[in-house]
Amino acid sequence: MTENAGTYVHESHGSVHGGEGPQYNFYVAAAAATSRLRDQAGGRPRTISRADRIHLYQRFVDPPHFTRVREVLREARVVLLDGPPGSGRRAAALMLLHQLPDSQGSLHELPDTLDDSAASVFDAREVSTGDRLLLDLSKAEEARYVEMQRQLSAFRDRLSPLDAHLVVVLPHQLGYLLRDDLRHLSADIGRPNSRHVLARHLRCEDIEPTGSDLDNQDLRAFLARAPLRKVAALADGIRRRRDTDGADQRFPQWLAAALADEHDQAGRVAADIAAEESGRRRALLLSLAMFHGSPPSTILHATNALLKALSHPDDETPRLDRTDLYAEFTAVRAEVDADGRVSFGLPGYDSAVRDHFWTYMPDVRGQLRDWFQGCMSSPGLGPAERKTAVARFAEQGLRCQRPEDLRALVERWARNDAATRYVPDAAQLLALGLSDDQHGRYFRQQIYDWSTAADTNEGLRHVLVLVCSESMAPTHPDQALVRLHHLARRGRARTGATAQEAVLSLARSDNRLYELMLNRLSADKDQNMWAARDSTLFLALADPIRRIRSSRVRALLAQGWSAALRRPDERWTGHVSHWLSACVEHAEHRGHVLEVLATACATDSRTAGRLYRAARVWQRAADGAVTERADTVDRLLHAIDTQQGIESYPYAV
C-alpha cells in the first residue's frame, strides 16, 4: 500500500481535436508511467477505474488498526485518517471508500483549490446521494489545515441525509492542530508488514516464493529500511526478471537482479565526486547522468554547455592534445554499448549523481535549470531521450522544493518561436508536477491562474488543454472541467476549438460532471462576458434525454435555454429541432422536454414566439411521423401558455 493511491473517475478520456492544423496525440511520461495502478506503493496514478481499484484491492494489505478506522467511518460517515508518512494513508483511504456500497453516487476526490471565487471545497450542493468522497490534506500547510477543519464541522451535517461518506487524510506533522471537537472522528493506522506486502504483490503475479526464499539476508535488510513504494517496485522488478530471463532462472536469481537495481549508490557517488578535482570531469558526470543512455555527441554537447553556464574558463589545450571521449567515459566508469549509447556500469549510479548535484550544490540550481533548457534545444535529441531527460529534471526540481523551476520552463517552452517542437516537453513537465503528492496542488492552482489570465499566450493554452484533458481530468475532474471551461472561453481559433471539444468530452463522461458543467453554463448568464461562447457550449452539451427526469437538471437546462434563445435564430434552431425530434423518438420523456423549452421562454413572449415559429418549421419539414410532429408542436404551445399563465384549452399530457 502507499501514500499515493489516486482518485476514481467514471471513465478515462482520449485525445481530442477541433479545428484545423496539427494535432499532437501523445501521452506524457507521467501519464504513461501510471496509466494503471499497478501496486500499492507507486506514484499517484492517472486514473483509478473500478477495474483499477480492484487491482489495488487484490494487492492491499490491511495496516494495523484498520478495523478501528472502518468502525469510525461506518458510525460517523466521516473518518480523519492519520498515520506516519509511508504507512499508506491514501491507499487505505481509497480502500475504505471502495469497500462501501456503490449502488448510488460516485467515488471522487474533493477539489483542493478554490476556483472561481468558490467559498469552500466543501460545497454541499455538489454532493449527491451515495457519494464517496476523499480529501487529502496530508501535505497541507498550517493555515489551510485549520480552515479546512472549521469548514468540515458544518459540512458533516449534510452527509447523513444523503448517505454519503468522507475520508480525510490528515497531515501527520500537524497533529497538534487537530480540533478537540473532531478528535473522536480521527483514527490512526500503522505501517503494514513489508514482507506481507511483497508476498501479496508477487502472488498476484503468479510468483510463489518459499519461506526460505523470503528469508534472504539482503532482502530482510532491504525491507527493513525501504519505503513501501520501493517494496512494490522490487516486486515489479522481480516480475520483469521472471518475464525476461526465461526458464533457466528461478526466484533467487530474479531477486538478486532486482535488488541490484534498487542498490543505493549515494555513498559511492559522494566519494567519487569528492575525489575528483577536475571541473570538466564533474560536468561530464552530471551531463551523463542527465542524458544517461544517449550518444557521445549529446553528452559532449551537454558537458560543454554546463561548463559555459557555470563560467568555467575555456581549455586552451589543442584538441588533439586532450583525451578523447572514450577515455573520459572510462575514467568515470561509463560504458558505450553496441548501439553507441553511453551509460554508467553500476545500476543506480546515474540517479545518485543527479541527486548529489541538486542536493549539495543548491547555489547553482538556477543555472542548472537554464543549462537543461539549453540542452533540450539540441536538434540531435530524439523523442525518447527528451522524454527521459524531462522526467529526470522534474524529479530533481520537485525533490528539492523548486516547483517554480518546472513552471519557468513550461512558460519558456510555450513562448518559444518553435513552440510546437516543445509542446510534448512542456506538457510532460507540467503533468509530472501535477502528479507529485507534495506539489500537485501548486500546479493545479498555477494552471487555474494561467487559464484565467488574459495575457496567456496561445502556445501555453494549447499545452494546458492537453494537460487538463489527459493528466488532470482522471484524478481531479472537477478542477480540470473548470480550467478547460476557461480555456474554451478565452482560446482563439484552433486552441479554443480544441478546448471546447475537451471540456464537452469531459462533461459528457459522467453524470455528476454533466450537471456541474450545466450549472457553470447557467450561472450569471445575463452578466457573463462570455455569454456567447457559453451558449455555444450549452447547446452542444445539453441533451434532451440525459437526466431529464431530474428536477435539478431540468431547471439548469431551462436556464441555459433561456440564454440561448435570446441569440440569433440560426444559432439554436437546429438544436431545437433535435429536442423536438427527441419528443417523437422518446415519447416517455416528451413532457419533461417540452417543460424545459417552455420554461426557458416563460418570461419573454417575444422569445416564446420565436421558439414556436421554429417548432412550426420543424413540423413542416417532416418526411414521416407527421401526426406525431403536429401533436408535439400542439403540446409545446400548450406548455408555453401554461408557463405564461395563459388560460389554454385542456390538453391531456
Biggest sheet record? 5 strands, parallel
SS class: mainly alpha
Strand order of the largest sheet: 2-3-4-1-5
What's the count of strands? 7
What is the residue-mean pLDDT, rounded to a whole number? 87
What ranges have pLDDT less than 50 throughout 5 or more consecutive residues?
1-48
Number of helices: 30
Helix content bin = 55-70%
Query: How far from one another are the termini?
Result: 57 Å
Cα radius of gyration in angstroms? 29 Å
Percent of residues in beta strands? Answer: under 5%
What is the overall silhouette?
globular
Question: Your description of this structure?
Answer:
- This protein is mainly alpha-helical.
- It is 58% helix and 4% strand.
- The protein has helices at 29-33, 50-59, 66-76, 89-98, 142-155, 194-204, 211-214, 217-225, 228-245, 251-261, 266-275, 279-290, 296-309, 325-331, 349-360, 365-375, 383-399, 403-415, 419-435, 440-452, 458-475, 477-490, 493-508, 511-522, 531-541, 551-564, 569-585, 590-600, 605-620, 626-643; strands at 78-82, 107-109, 132-136, 165-169, 186-188, 334-336, 342-344.
- The strands form 2 sheets. Strands 2-3-4-1-5 form a 5-stranded parallel beta sheet, with helices on one face. Strands 6-7 form a two-stranded antiparallel ribbon.
- Strand 6 (334-336) and strand 7 (342-344) form a beta hairpin.
- Helix 12 crosses helix 13.
- The radius of gyration is 29 Å and the shape is globular.
- The two termini are 57 Å apart.
- The model is unreliable at 1-48 (pLDDT under 50).
